[in-house]
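Hey L., structure's done. Input below.
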Amino acid sequence: MKKNILTIILSFFFIGGLFMTDGRGGNMKITSSVFEHNKSIPEKYTCEGKDINPPLQISDVPEGTKSLALIVDDPDAPGGTFVHWVAFDIPVTNQIAEKSIPGKQGANDFGRKNYGGPCPPSGTHRYFFKIYALDTTLNLAEGITKSGLEKAMQGHILASTELIGLYQKKRLW
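Output:
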């Protein structure tokens, strides 16, 4: 059974991102003009560069979407999944500009309310850029955690998709 589920999930892969159905036949997609799905994130968008968010493009947002939410995390961190960015109540858009604040900001695991770029202690890590189309505006307070946002989104997700970027530090500190 697990193998069949994995096959179904993998069948949705596309070069620039991962499609996921919204249950009404649509296919929302997230891509970036600066890196491809499962490819390296440029240094500019990491702790070794300018530490700014990369540009993201969102397509096929389903009808009825009232807001978007974004979570960026690293499941390969030594202490468990490390949260790099939480943003919500993002107005419906087809792009999130480089070095932007697209909506309200939640707390990341750096202890800040903004984007914190990839900065793995060793090896190559995967960074999941997950976008959610919601049927509501959440009106939560800034600084909410990833888990708090995920709980608030329950029952409101029309579609979701993700883009995975990779990064390995060039310099050892």
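The first strand starts at residue 13 and ends at 14. Residues 98 and 172 are 26 Å apart (CA to CA).

-- N.
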